[in-house]
Design goal:
Length: 388
């Protein structure tokens, strides 16, 4: 046995050394630490520091501008991010030339806009002058016909006592002296006239208070060239003006437009604070609604919700019914009334009964009592006797 060991000692020695070596290596691996990554490790792709001259496909030299991250940040802060900015910095003369060119173009555009504005203003002024000339020419052309119409109206005026209640034909009489300009009527003013805006109508009527202008204003309203709100607003402004001629023109305009809105406007301006002369003229126009020709409008007025309007309407109707009962007749049935004092047919009063019956249930006791009294008076009216 000993002899065998002695013969194999080199092999044993080698095995021993190898085993010791493996043990030492495993121990070293267990006790060794993982190396740390350097803090200044850069992940940037390495770039060549020097480059040769390069050309693009068109044969031009390629100029490279390689910047680091820090340099790019500084470029952003200084406003040198684009090649155009760098180029402008490198070529200030060209930048100044371009800025000057842009400034000249802006001046040119401003001058053209100013020129166009001046031309438009001149054109508008010329059109306005043309319209004024047309109005003046029409006033001159219709003067003679208007004067004939006024004389014809004066011939039809009656002076009987029964005419104390103002008739429709008598309305222009107190307004005929607006000024020395010739008067006219809406029919004569219906010729073709240039259209005016609301502001132009207001300026014209306040500047020239003539019946001719009032008639043209009425024609424009009937044609729809002026809306209702503007028409009544201008009329009320004229009525409330301190100048007497403007007040008379307003009354003339409203007299030619019998309507519920006109009646309401007149009642609103018939108050204690209204100057006495104007108040008297306003009431003269209001009283015309008590005539048979205005019964259709008066029947609509009776449906109003304004207590002052209803009181005035029932008062006018009461006066009309009372005058109807006072018409003189002899025993034989012969009509003793003077010319122009024909009685109102009873059927026209009957048409007012539906509106009056509605007022009987009004919460206003005074209006309800007046309505009930009117119903009884109308039902007791006798039909006018027929000629034998």
């Amino acid at each position: 046995m000993k002899q065998r060991i002695l013969n194999n000692w080199p092999i044993l020695m080698v095995a021993t050394v190898m085993g010791f070596s493996f043990y030492a290596m495993s121990f070293a691996l267990r006790t060794s630490e993982v190396p740390k990554v350097a803090d200044d490790l850069s992940y940037e792709m390495p770039r060549p520091q020097t480059e040769g001259v390069e050309y693009d496909l068109s044969g031009r030299i390629v100029v490279r501008d390689i910047r680091s991250i820090e340099k790019k940040k500084k470029s952003r802060a200084s406003g040198e991010m684009t090649g155009e900015a760098v180029k402008t910095k490198e070529d200030p003369k060209k930048a100044q030339a371009e800025a000057k060119k842009k400034e000249e173009e802006e001046k040119k555009k401003t001058a053209e806009a100013k020129k166009k504005k001046e031309e438009a203003a001149k054109k508008a002024k010329a059109e306005q002058k043309k319209k004024a000339d047309q109005i003046a020419a029409q006033q001159k052309a219709t003067a003679e016909a208007a004067e004939k119409e006024r004389l014809a109206q004066l011939k039809t005026t009656h002076s009987s006592d029964l005419h104390e209640a103002p008739a429709v034909q008598q309305a222009p009489a107190p307004v005929a002296a607006l000024d020395t300009s010739p008067t006219s009527n809406p029919a004569a003013a219906a010729n073709e006239t240039p259209k005016l805006s609301v502001a132009q109508w207001r300026a014209l009527l306040f500047g020239q208070a003539t019946v001719k202008n009032a008639n043209e204003f009425l024609v424009a309203y009937k044609r729809g060239e002026i809306d209702a709100n503007s028409f009544y607003q201008i009329s009320e402004e004229l009525l409330q003006d301190a100048v007497a001629d403007r007040q008379k023109m307003a009354l003339y305009i409203l007299k030619q437009d019998p309507s519920v809105r006109t009646f309401t406007l007149l009642v609103a301006n018939y108050q204690e604070k209204t100057p006495e002369p104007l108040k008297t003229q306003v009431y003269e126009v209001i009283k015309s609604y008590g005539e048979a020709t205005h019964f259709p409008v008066l029947s609509k007025v009776l449906f109003s919700t304004d207590s002052r309007v209803l009181q005035m309407a029932t008062q006018l109707l009461t006066q009309t019914v009372a005058k109807q009962n006072q018409q003189p007749q002899n025993v034989s049935g012969r009509d003793l009334r003077g010319p122009g004092s024909a009685p109102i047919p009873s059927n026209q009063f009957q048409a007012l009964l539906p509106a009056l019956r509605r007022l009987v249930t009004s919460e206003n006791s005074q209006i309800a009592q007046q309505a009930q009294a009117l119903i009884e008076s109308i039902e007791s009216l006798k039909k006018p006797p027929t000629a034998a």
